[in-house]
């Protein structure tokens, strides 16, 4: 029976593998096309049928990094992303820990309210933030954009960390209290080290959400704090002759995040696995 079922399982495995390869290929096609476009001259980028054999050039990549204030916009994006992570993750962890330690009957409405806030369209929240920033004379400043991104990312961070804290037995809190720890000491000394994988995942997702944010950055920034997603939109997107430059800019904006994800890939997988396994 097992000998007969083995070929069937092997065939199913191969079908799943082929399906995943096709799915990955379809998702990577826009990226591959952008890479090829960034290495072509515009006259080669829009030929029909597409030109697959061409003389590659790094002209547009060099132009993006040296002549379009790309580094300045990159620094703005990194400042905003770092500020968002350093505020969102600690605050979200504290809130998630508190919610995880109250009765589920009380925690349910709080989590539902956070989930509802997360579903709000960004445009619905961008206008009040713009009005508030104008009133406080904070438009085109880092604090306003960082606080706005923390506000829209916080529900996700709390939901994510809440799941990790639920996996940590409450017996540890009680044991810490018996040893003389206050609630803060129990959280900082006992619980927080066990939740580090979850905090790593929360930090990475907060970094991605803030680094790629376009609408809030468009509405709340100006010449001094403009971030990369907003700046890239002005890199000749409407002029076909500048699409190679736009493609080079798109590749450039992606590189820092790719480097970060490659460096922290092990921690990301460990954190996601820890949050998915109970007991």
TrEMBL record:
<keyword id="KW-0813">Transport</keyword>
<feature type="transmembrane region" description="Helical">
    <location>
        <begin position="111"/>
        <end position="136"/>
    </location>
</feature>
<feature type="transmembrane region" description="Helical">
    <location>
        <begin position="12"/>
        <end position="36"/>
    </location>
</feature>
<dbReference type="InterPro" id="IPR050901">
    <property type="entry name" value="BP-dep_ABC_trans_perm"/>
</dbReference>
<comment type="similarity">
    <text>Belongs to the binding-protein-dependent transport system permease family.</text>
</comment>
<dbReference type="GO" id="GO:0005886">
    <property type="term" value="C:plasma membrane"/>
</dbReference>
<protein>
    <submittedName>
        <fullName>Binding protein-protein-dependent transport system inner membrane component</fullName>
    </submittedName>
</protein>
<feature type="transmembrane region" description="Helical">
    <location>
        <begin position="240"/>
        <end position="264"/>
    </location>
</feature>
<feature type="transmembrane region" description="Helical">
    <location>
        <begin position="142"/>
        <end position="161"/>
    </location>
</feature>
<dbReference type="GO" id="GO:0055085">
    <property type="term" value="P:transmembrane transport"/>
</dbReference>
<keyword id="KW-0472">Membrane</keyword>
<keyword id="KW-1133">Transmembrane helix</keyword>
<keyword id="KW-1003">Cell membrane</keyword>
<dbReference type="InterPro" id="IPR000515">
    <property type="entry name" value="MetI-like"/>
</dbReference>
<feature type="domain" description="ABC transmembrane type-1">
    <location>
        <begin position="74"/>
        <end position="264"/>
    </location>
</feature>
<feature type="transmembrane region" description="Helical">
    <location>
        <begin position="198"/>
        <end position="220"/>
    </location>
</feature>
<feature type="transmembrane region" description="Helical">
    <location>
        <begin position="70"/>
        <end position="99"/>
    </location>
</feature>
<dbReference type="InterPro" id="IPR035906">
    <property type="entry name" value="MetI-like_sf"/>
</dbReference>
<dbReference type="Pfam" id="PF00528">
    <property type="entry name" value="BPD_transp_1"/>
</dbReference>
<keyword id="KW-0812">Transmembrane</keyword>
């Amino acid at each position: 029976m097992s000998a007969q079922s083995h070929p069937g399982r092997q065939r199913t495995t191969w079908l799943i593998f082929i399906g995943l390869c096709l799915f990955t290929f379809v998702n990577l096609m826009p990226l591959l096309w952008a890479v090829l476009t960034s290495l072509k001259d515009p006259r080669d980028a829009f030929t029909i049928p597409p030109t697959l054999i061409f003389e590659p050039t790094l002209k547009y990549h060099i132009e993006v990094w040296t002549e379009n204030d790309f580094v300045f916009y990159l620094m703005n994006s990194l400042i905003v992303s770092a500020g968002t992570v350093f505020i969102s993750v600690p605050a979200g962890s504290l809130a998630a820990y508190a919610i995880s330690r109250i009765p589920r009957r009380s925690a349910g409405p709080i989590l539902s309210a956070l989930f509802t806030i997360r579903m709000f369209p960004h445009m619905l929240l961008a206008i009040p933030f713009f009005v508030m920033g104008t009133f406080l004379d904070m438009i085109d400043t880092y604090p306003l954009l960082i606080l706005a991104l923390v506000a829209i990312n916080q529900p996700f961070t709390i939901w994510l960390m809440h799941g990790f804290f639920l996996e940590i037995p409450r017996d540890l809190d009680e044991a810490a209290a018996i040893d003389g720890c206050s609630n803060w000491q129990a959280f900082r000394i006992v619980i927080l080290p066990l939740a580090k994988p979850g905090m790593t995942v929360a930090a990475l997702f907060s970094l991605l959400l803030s680094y790629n944010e376009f609408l809030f950055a468009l509405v709340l920034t100006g010449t001094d704090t403009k971030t990369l997603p907003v700046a890239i939109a002005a890199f000749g997107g409407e002029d076909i002759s500048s699409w190679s430059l736009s493609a080079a800019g798109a590749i450039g904006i992606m590189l820092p995040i790719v480097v970060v994800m490659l460096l922290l890939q092990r921690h990301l997988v460990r954190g996601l696995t820890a949050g998915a396994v109970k007991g």
